Amino acid sequence: MSENSDKVGFGQHTLEEPVHLETVTVRQDLEPGNTIHQELTSIEGDCDDPQSWPKWKRELQIWMIAVHSMVSTFMAAGIIPAYERMAKDYGVSVHQTSYLSSAQILLLGVAPLLWGPISSRYGRYHLCVFSVFGSMLCNIGGARCTTFGAQIATRVLTAFLISPPIGICGGIITELALPEHRAGKLGYWTLLTVLGTPTGPFIMGFVMQHTELSWVYWIFALMNFVYENGEHINSALSSKRTLLQRLLPRRTDPSPLSFRAFLKPLSLAKYPRILILALAHSITFCYANIAIVVEVPIAFGEKFHLNAQKIGLQFIGVVIGSALGEQLSGRASDYFIKFLRKRKPEVHPADRLWLVCIGFATVFCGLLTWGFQLQNATSWNVTPCVGAAIASFGN
C-alpha cells in the first residue's frame, strides 16, 4: 500500500485529524464490502468522526434530529385546540387566533433559508442547541402572556428559533447514514415532520380539556428542556471535549458570511423543471395538510360546538392518512422503478415523479369530500374526517 493509503478522505479532512459533526462529508463511493468501508466502520479512535461512532449512536443522533423537526411542527399546530380559550382570554375572534399557528407555519417554511449559511459557518450542533434553548425561553414566555400581541410575538420567535432542523436535517442524515440506508432515514425524518402537524393538536386537545391554557406552553418548554439535555448527553458520548468547550461556538468555515449565501437556494428557481415541481408540491401540502389542520377549530368547533378534546380527536384521520401515505409511497416508488427496469434499459431517478399524479388525484378527492361533507352536515359525522384522511394520504 502507498504512504497515504491508510487515510480515508472526508472532504478536506482525513481520519488522522479530528473531524467534527459540523464539517464531515461522507464519501459517496463507500459501499458495503469495500475495504475502506470495512476499515471505516471498525475505527474507534476518533470520537469526533461521526462515521466512527457505533451504529446505535449514529441511529440515536438521526432520531434526535428527526424528533427536533417533528417538535417544530408539533408546537406550531399544538395550540389549535386552545383557539377558543385564547380568543376568550385575549378578547379576539377565533379566526384572529388562528394567526398564531399560521404565522409559525409561515416562518417554519422561510426561516431555514436564513439558518443554512449560519450552520455551514458555525456548525450544526451549536445551532441545534441554541435553537432548542431559545425556543424553550419563548415557550416559558408564552405561558406568562396575557395579551394577544405578546403571544403572537412569542409564537413568531419560537417558530424562527426552532426551524433550523427543517433545513439542515437532510445534511446531517447524509453524513451519518451509509448510502444504502440513507433513503430510509430521510423517510423517517419526512414522516415525523409531517406527523408533527396533526399529532400536536391531537395530543394537546386532551391537555386543554383538563388543564389551564398555560400548561400547553409549559409542556412545550418541558419538551425543549428534555431534548436540550438529551443533546448534551449525546454530545458528551460523542466527544472528549468538556461541556464548556462543546458549547463555545467555533467557526468551522473561514469563508465570509455574505448576503449572497442566504439567497443562493433561491437561484434554483431559474430552472422551470425545479420551480414547477416545487410549487406543485408546496401548494398541495398547504391545502392537504396545513389548511385542513388550521381550519378544524373553525369548521368543526364552531359548527358542531365541540370542546377542545373533541377538536383534537378530529385530527386522527390526518394522522392515519399521513402515516399510511408516507409508508406506502416509498415502497410504491421502488416497485415502480423495478417495473420500469423490466421494460426499458435506462431508468432515471426523475421517473419516480410519475407517481405524484396519483397523489394529486387523491388530494383532490379528499379535499372535495372534506369540504362538501362538512358543508352539508347538520350534525357531526365521520365523513369529513375520512376526506381529510384521503387528502393526507395523497399528500
Brief sketch in words of this structure:
It is found in: Membrane. With 395 residues, the protein is mainly α.
Descriptive report:
This protein is mainly alpha-helical and 395 residues long. It has two domains: 53-250, Growth Hormone, Chain: A; 267-394, no CATH class. Helix content is 71%, strand content 1%. The chain has 18 helices and two strands. It has helices spanning 35-42, 55-78, 83-90, 94-97, 99-110, 112-122, 124-143, 148-162, 164-176, 179-210, 214-238, 243-247, 259-263, 272-304, 308-313, 316-343, 356-376, 383-394, and strands at residues 9-10, 13-14. A hairpin with a 2-residue loop joins β1 and β2. The radius of gyration is 23 Å and the shape is globular. It starts with 8 loop residues before the first strand and ends with a helix.
What labels would you give this structure?
Growth Hormone, Chain: A; disordered N terminus; mainly alpha; 395 residues; two-stranded antiparallel ribbon; 2 strands; 2 domains
